[in-house]
Amino acid sequence: MKPIASLSLDLDNKWSYMKTHGDAGWESFPTYLDVVVPRSLEFLRERNLKITYFIVGQDAVRDENKEAIAQISNANHEIGNHSFKHEPWLHLYSKEELAEEFEKTEKALENITGQRTIGFRGPGYSLSPTVLEVLAERNYEYDCSTLPTYIAPLARAYYFFKSPEMTEEEREKRKKLFGKFSDGFQSLKPYKWQIGEKSLVEIPVTTLPFFKTPIHASYVIYLSTFSKTLARTYWKTAIEMCRMTGTPISLLLHPLDFLSGEDAPELKFFPAMNLPVEKKLEFVGEILEIFAEKFEIVNMRQHAETVRRESIKSLIVETAKS
Ligand SMILES: [Zn+2]
């Protein structure tokens, strides 16, 4: 039997890329979901894959996106929560702001799809003990907002210790918290967050064992613009290293893996947007085929259920109250 691996797509919309990049015009929430959703669904259908789409709440409250989001659910893919406003500084939100952020997204998505989200991925892999606490209170089963790299934990530590409202006592407490909490950012393998009585399965976005460089599809496509052979070799090596180290893979797709500059001229500045869409899809198909030879590909919910059944390491999340 092949080991399990999961596949998900973060449905970042055109406006969220423009917002991050500081481009004017994002405030009217320009969308490409009507193009990228049918295209990605067709691609997955041809390969008989059922995955998880992480969707932004802001998109689910706008009429022009509802048809596309309904198509995802009708095709039996899992719907996950990707926050409401898609701001990569979620770890700076208060508990109340987080609860509102999650509730609005859950409602909007449930209205369209009938699915209650049980999984979360933070925008820009942002996470904090408070985010985990709110997820546990809202009965989430899993989180997949950690990306084990060498850079991200340092950036986050900076934010944690810079918060101006913190008293000295709180700061000391946070330092201890951060010790335990940050352990999670190092792990390539799934584990559990223990939050009071509740627990959440954490499935890190897989990076290359030892080197911790990204292995999601966009990065491999980017490499392919220099050399297809290089990109293929990198990908095969990554799969093999994960297999050898017993690291379960959770692979990530993005809308730009299914789009070219012609589809979204505003995003032409992104890597590999000059590739014609047929070439891109052909290459994504190729790396997924290599992936499927070694692993059984499932959605995030199934991956989390499998992980929960195994005995895995637990990290205790101390919340502000405790
Ligand atoms: Zn995103």
Could you explain how this protein is built, in words?
The chain has 322 residues and is of the alpha/beta class. The chain has helices at 14-21, 33-46, 57-60, 63-74, 95-113, 129-137, 152-162, 168-186, 217-224, 228-244, 277-294, 300-309; strands at residues 4-10, 52-55, 78-81, 119-120, 142-143, 191-195, 198-202, 250-253, 296-298, 314-316. β6 and β7 (198-202) form a beta hairpin. The protein is globular. The model is unreliable at 151-162 (pLDDT under 50). Bound molecules: zinc ion. Zinc ion binds at residues 10, 12, 82, 86, 123. Zinc ion is lined by residues 10, 12, 82, 86, 123.
What fraction strand?
5-15%
Amino-to-carboxy terminus distance: 43 Å
Quote the average pLDDT: 86
The radius of gyration computed from the alpha-carbon positions, rounded to a whole number of angstroms, is: 19 Å
Number of strands: 10
Share of helical residues: 40-55%
| Uncertain segments | 151-162
Biggest sheet descriptor:
5 strands, parallel
**Helix-strand makeup class:** alpha/beta
The best one-word shape is globular
Total of DSSP H or I helical runs spanning 4+ residues:
12
Order of helices and strands: EHHEHHEHEHEHHEEHHEHEHE
List cofactors, ions and other ligands. zinc ion
